[in-house]
Amino acid sequence: MALMGVQLVVSLLAATIMQRMAPHCSFARWLLCNGSLLRFKHPSEGELCALAGKQITKPNKKDRRQNGHRENKPLTVPKDIDLRLESTPVNPLDALVLRFFIEYQWLIDFAIYATGIFLFTEGYYSVVDASKEVNIGVIWCVLTVFFCLRSLHTLMSHYFSSDEGGERSVCLAFGFLSLLVAMLVLVVREDYLEFGLEPGFNSLFDNLEVFAKQQGYAWSVPITKLTVKLGLACVCAFVGALLAFPGLRLAQTHLDALQLNADRPFIKILLHISFLSPLLVLVLWVKPIARDFLANAPMGKTTVTLIPSSAFNTVRLWTVVALCVLRLLVVRFHMQAYLNLSQKWVEQMKREAGRIAAIDIQRKVTRIFCYLTVVTLQYLIPILLILFSTLALKSLGDFSWGFVEETPGVTPALVLPTSPPPVSGLEDDEESEDMEEEVQATVARLAEAFHGLCAILTPLFFRGFFAFFTWWVAACQVISSLFGIYFHQYLMHN
User: Keywords assigned by UniProt (predicted)?
Assistant: First the structure.
């Protein structure tokens, strides 16, 4: 199998360009600093004193000498002052103070380059017969999924390291809830949820059984199936805990974005479709609602085939990709709705009685802006997880973007290729020839191991695994975002 080729050269070139161009040209930095997002500046103490009708008094030098340990009282102003925050576009210099900005920039830029590599490999495979080459685009997609989960884990670790235990309790609650839901989903038959997990696991276990017998190991399939499913349920619980706060944040920004665009009905429709897109992804894998209904749609007393069953997989892939693109297009409305929380908080403060410290007003306004990249990551990462797991599902599952019938490659009996024994040379062979033979033997062993891995992990297994992962990420976001809607609409007002 050819490991070096055009794909690897393009992949190394893309990695080099990403490293060199990041300080100068970054899509992640442009997304926040292109001038379309407006942040609010915190008021100075002089402005607050002017609004409160008082002057700032500074102690003189004599007072400082006499009262060396005199405690300076914080400046306080009435909460009902006529405070109006000044807005300004977010610029690259402002991004330097944002929390997790480096992680945000690297992840989003990596996802952009991964998309470019995937598109190149798709075009390359459509023109050249590269069946003997490793699909580099799939490796970039899987790495993007892994880096997205790592970024979510970093954010969740930040919640666990804080002194307040509210965020920690929310993550643990959603983790246990996700574990319960995952265990229920894994026992649903394929007639209702057509992930393909059972055929994929059967193919995997059959090949592993043959491989274990060839290597002389004992094998117990029933125990292994139960262990794998329990492990998969634990992974689902971990993913559910990671996606708890992104879903809650999505609910809040969605409601604020609707209020911000109340006079723009077309944008409101796009926002509603974007918010409901994870629910649409769930429905695509419910067989009685999606595949069976579209293949036999009732029209009076007859049935009409809207989408043939052979083309349904392709339609499902295109639908998921289109929904992800739609959610990416409305990201600016959600981020602006988050930044407007500063003005919203000020308006709420004006309706309260009493006094507030000026430093508290400044901290609140500044803190909202400093967490802009965190909110952006919480919005984008679930989209990237669904998108790149779908792209990996297409390539590793041997699907097609065209409307053709696919037949997944299945390996009924595992036969590992054997490398030819090295040719023994004369006793007086040179040392360079011995090293060359060792290199050739190492390459042969690596190729043999890769062939064995490809024979064990068949496209049928990848279809089930990535279909389930895509569905599960959408399910976690549906659960957390709907709970967030209920929390912000009802519990916050009670």
Answer: Glycoprotein, Membrane, Signal, Transmembrane, Transmembrane helix
